Amino acid sequence: MTLSLPPFGMDFNTVLSAAFNLVNVAVLAVVLAFLLYRPVREVLQKRTERIQKQLSQADDELKQAISLRHEYEQKIEDIEREREEILETARKQASDSSRRLLSEAKAEADTVKERASRTVEMEWERAQMEMRNAIIDVSSVMAKKLVKHSLTKGVQDSMFDETVSELEGMTWRN
Questions:
Q1: What is the model's pLDDT at position 133?
Q2: Plot region of 135 (φ>0 → left; ψ -120 to 50 → alpha; else → beta)
Q3: Which partner from 45, 57, 62, 134 sits 20 to 30 angstroms from 119, CA to CA?
Q4: pTM of the shown model
C-alpha cells in the first residue's frame, strides 16, 4: 500500500526517508554541537582575545608614538629657541666687537693724526731754523764782501745785486 501525499506527489517511503534524514541531521547537529561548539567557541574566544590584545597593544603604541612625537616637537622647539638665542648673542657680540674695533681704530687714527701734526710742526720749526741760518750765512757773506771792498755807491749797488742773484739761485730744503 502506498500512501501518497497529493500536494507534493510523494509516496510514503519518500516521506519516511525524508523524515529519517531530517532526524539524522538533527541528531548529527546536536552531537556536533556538543562535540564542536565548545572547542570552536574557545578558538573564537582566543582569537577575539588575541585581536583585542593586538588592538590594545596597537592603541598603546599609537599613544606612545604620539607622546614621542610631542616630545620631539618640544625638543625641536627648544633647539630652535636655543638657536635663536645663540644667534642673538652672536649678533650682539659682533656688534659690540664692531663698535670696539671702530673705537680703537678711531683712537689710533687720532693718535696718528696727532703724531703727524707734531711731526709737521717740528719740520716747520726746523725749516724756519734752517732759513734763519741761511739768512745769517748770507748776511755774513755780504758783510765779508762789504768789508773787503771799499764802500762806494757803485760797489754797494753791485754787491747788493750780486747777493740778491745768489739768493735767488739758492734752493731751500722743505
A1: 87
A2: alpha
A3: 134
A4: 0.40
Query: How far, in Å, CA of 125 to CA of 87, rounded?
Result: 56
The structural domains of the chain, with segments of one domain joined by +, span 4-150
User: Could you tell me what percent of the chain has a pLDDT over 90?
Assistant: 52
What are 159's three cell numbers?
A: 754787491
User: Interhelix angle for 153-169 vs 12-148, to 10°?
Assistant: 160
Closest by alpha carbon to 145, among 159, 161, 164, 135? 159
Q: Judging by beta carbons within 10 Å of its beta carbon (0-12, 13-18, 19+), is residue 132 exposed, middle or buried?
A: exposed
Q: From residue 163, how far is each of 52, 85, 169 by CA, in Å?
A: 129, 82, 10
Query: Phi/psi at 2 (nearest 5 deg)?
Result: -120, 125
